[in-house]
């Protein structure tokens, strides 16, 4: 899907080796961008890069765990050395543990918040330092409808995604004078690696679909157009916003 020309632009996508991140990597590569695929599994990142080569740009797989600040620093040092800039950052890395709140351990809480919130913040911070020198940049944070509408048995995940929405607003306010635009996308129920186990429960899936006004699950490609829009100059009067893509689920 191509609605904008990103030729000559560098797009960094954390969590880019699978699910929504991999879909967006294809979208931006098809639109002419150079794309950095970031994931903990370098083999999967390399697989995505191989798929992107048909589009003729520059694509770089980078192994990084965004819960570790040294990995984030190394990631952006690589981007700076290889491309000299970052035009768009998409924070797509995310994890979840599905279990009752009374059973969540400290390690599980830290694991989820360290990747979904701490890692996202410090990726934003490091990218912003480069974008400030460029005097422009676009940041897209992937939140969730779970950050808007309370859900059961995902307390840490829900908390992290709600925090991402508020953090997006704060960063948009603080960095607007640098022409850095910060927005978020809140997807609804989209089957990906992060929730694969949940979607094996057919009873739960059928019940979930009944609760969605459009009566279907989402697909990673449902985030394509809004992501390209938010990364483009067409959205230069939009910042601090969260765009909900959930088939109407959160309005009920």
Outline the structure in words.
It contains 7 helices and 7 strands; from the N terminus they run E-H-E-H-E-H-E-H-E-H-E-H-H-E. With 252 residues, the chain is α/β, with parallel strands linked by helices. A 7-stranded parallel β-sheet has the order 3-2-1-4-5-6-7, with helices on both faces.
What descriptive keywords fit this protein?
252 residues; alpha/beta; seven-stranded parallel β-sheet
Which term fits the overall shape? globular
What class, by secondary structure content? alpha/beta
Low-confidence stretches: none
Strand order of the largest sheet: 3-2-1-4-5-6-7
Helical coverage, percent range? 40-55%
Number of strands: 7
Distance between the termini: 30 Å
Order of helices and strands: EHEHEHEHEHEHHE
Brief rundown of the structure:
The protein has 252 residues and is α/β, with parallel strands linked by helices. The chain contains seven helices and seven strands, in the order βαβαβαβαβαβααβ.
């Amino acid at each position: 899907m191509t609605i904008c020309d990103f030729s000559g632009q560098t797009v960094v996508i954390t969590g880019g080796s699978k699910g929504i991140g991999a879909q967006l990597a294809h979208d931006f590569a098809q639109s002419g961008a150079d794309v950095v695929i970031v994931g903990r599994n370098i083999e999967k990142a390399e697989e995505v890069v191989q798929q992107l080569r048909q589009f003729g740009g520059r694509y770089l797989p980078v192994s990084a765990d965004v819960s570790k600040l040294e990995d984030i620093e190394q990631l952006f040092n690589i981007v700076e050395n290889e491309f000299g800039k970052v035009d768009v950052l998409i924070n797509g890395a995310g994890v979840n543990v599905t279990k009752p709140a009374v059973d969540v351990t400290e390690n599980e809480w830290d694991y989820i918040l360290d990747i979904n919130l701490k890692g996202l913040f410090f990726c934003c911070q490091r990218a912003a330092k480069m974008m400030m020198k460029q005097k422009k940049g676009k940041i897209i944070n992937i939140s969730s409808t779970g950050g808007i509408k309370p859900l059961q048995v995902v307390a840490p995940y829900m908390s992290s995604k709600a925090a991402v929405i508020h953090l997006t607003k704060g960063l948009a306010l603080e960095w607007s004078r640098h022409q850095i635009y910060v927005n978020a996308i809140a997807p609804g129920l989209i089957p990906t690696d992060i929730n694969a186990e949940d979607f094996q429960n057919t009873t739960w899936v059928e019940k979930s679909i009944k609760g969605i006004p459009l009566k279907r699950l989402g697909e990673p490609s449902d985030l394509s157009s809004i992501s390209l829009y938010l990364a483009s100059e067409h959205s230069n009067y939009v910042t601090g916003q969260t765009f909900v893509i959930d088939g109407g689920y959160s309005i009920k």
